[in-house]
Structure formats: structure tokens, C-alpha cells
Amino acid sequence: MGIRTSSPTLEAVEIKVIMPLLAWILLFSLVGGALSVLAAAVYLLLSENLRARVLPHLVSFAIGALLGAAFLGLLPHALQGPGIDDFHGLTGTVLLGLLGFFLLEKLVLWRHCHASDCEVHAGEHAPTQTAAGTLILVGDGIHNFVDGILIGGAFITDIHLGIVTSLAVASHEIPQEVGDFAVLLHSGYSRARAFMFNLLASLTTLLGGLLAYYALKDALAVVPYVLAVAAASFIYIAVADLIPGLHRRTEVLATVGQLALITAGVMVIYVTHAWLH
Hints:
This protein is an all-alpha fold.
């Protein structure tokens, strides 16, 4: 009888140890993803007129934040990933990612265009802008998924490290999520749809946390390439979809303002990244 009762006791102990760790990972993955979206959603509470005046400036800021996140955050971490000794493989992944997002945007355009009725160059809500919104959600989902993997890995190392990492991810995501909202609204999304889709994209953090918990070693081997694809997404959106819109205004003061806000976006990512490290 002693042998029979000891096995359930050991199983109970194992569950007691394992389940809280998984609960910590899921809880703080949610904090790292959804909380930053909720904080950034304050922008959606502004009046329509104020949002219309602020939006062009936020688009410029978003360009800087996207490029800063890609070149100062995602790519350096990808190049420093575990077991990475073939930089050509990573840069090739970025190149393939750029081409892939070009094809994805084409598919979005083809879906919205017909032989005799194409609105590619018509109005504020043209399909190219709709495509930008789709791509930002794809890139954000990938980025949040990777954040979940990092949070899960930190918790597996140490619970305190996991908490600190989760809060750091949330604070780093807020300025980027504000930029994402700007892109989504610029792409023709309503405030409600922008909030709903951005919140859904943030929930991929939970999937990343689960993957880290159940298959950490395999996930870490893939992370650098996932980061490279996310970087390709951000670069493509900034360069192909957002920057051309800034060229509609050629006045010197407008250009200086755009450059200042792009620089501000880059600096926010740089300072945040440096502070976290």
C-alpha cells in the first residue's frame, strides 16, 4: 500500500511545481502583449479632429519606430542568436522575407482590384494602405510571438527574471503599438477594428510562451530566423508603404518635421533598448 500511495503523492508534487510555472508564463505573456496594446489604445480615445491632426505625425514616428525596432532590436538579436555562425543564412532570410511581403501585398491588391475597377491609386483607403495594415498585423504577431518565447525562456531560468523580462517587454512595446495604431488607422481601419485586431495580434505572445514551455530548445534554434522575418516585415512596411506617403508634402518645414519625428521614433527604440540592457 505504501508503494501505491507514494506514486500519486509524487505526481501531486510534480503538478504543484510545474503548473504554477506555466501559469506564471501565461499570465505575464498576457501582460507583455495585451497590456501594451491597452496602454497604447489611449490614442483611440482622442476626438476625430484631433486624431486627424495627430495621425500624419504618428505615421512619421511609426516609420522611425519600425526601422529602429528592425535594425537596433530584431536584427542584432537574430545575429547574436544561439548557434548562429552563418550570417548569410540570416540575411538571406531577411531578403526572402522582403520578397515574401511584396508578394503578400500583391495578393491583397489583387483581392481588392478588378480588371475594370481598380482603386490602387484612389483615395485615402486605397488597397496599398489596406495592405500596410495587414502587413503590420502579421509583423506584430510574429514579434509578439517571439516576445512570448523570450518571456517563457526567462521564467524557465528564474521566476524573478521572468517578471522583469515581461515588464520590460511591455514597456518596450507601448511606443511601437502606438505606431501600429497609427498605421492601422492610416490604412482605413476604424478605431474598434484597429483595437480588436491589434489585441488579437498581441495574443500570439501566449502562443510563444506555450511553445517556449513545451519545446524551448527547438524554439530557440528557430528564433533568429523568426526575428529576421519580423525585421523584414517592419522594413518593408516602413520603406514601401509609409515613406512614399511622406513625399506628398515637399515643403522644407514639413520635411524637417517628418525627419525629426522619424529620428524620434528611432531614438525611443534605441533608448528603451539600451535601458533594458
